[in-house]
Predict the structure.
Amino acid sequence: WFFSSIEYFLCVFLFVFGSKDQLFTRTGNREMPEANAVTEELTEGLVVEQKFKNITEDINEIAIVFSRHYDLAENVNMVIELLDGNNVLASENINCDDIQAKHRTYIKPTNLISGYVGKELTLRVYTKSTAGTGLAIMMNTNENTSFTFGNNSVKGTLCFSITGKE
């Protein structure tokens, strides 16, 4: 039994269409949770860390949402890092004056971050600002997770997302 050319192309089309998720690269994303709270102000000496299970093969972008608590009068940076254990995968220094409240702040790694699917990664944020001049991070309190803020465990998750290719 031989296929006619129309039947052959129809079978190939149906195979490719039905298998597109397995045959082609697609964009993956750790979705950002909806913000319903804000952390305390980040000041020098406080480190915020959120651990999460990565679902993205090639990480292209990290987004995090901050909230302004005060007028920023200092010329200080917010440091945002992505880690695998103690290994820093990406790091960005962003001047606090350039961070818009309640808007996504994007970090685009300079090197390809690949091969970390299923691994627990850590988002770390810290600054050298003094009290009364800093930013806070938007968060969601409805999660069954927690993050560390200084030496304290806080119920919830930071408002951040990871985007890349699966």
About this structure: The chain has a mean pLDDT of 81. The chain is about 10% helix and 45% strand. Helices lie at 5-18, 20-23. Residues 49 and 148 are 5 Å apart (CA to CA).
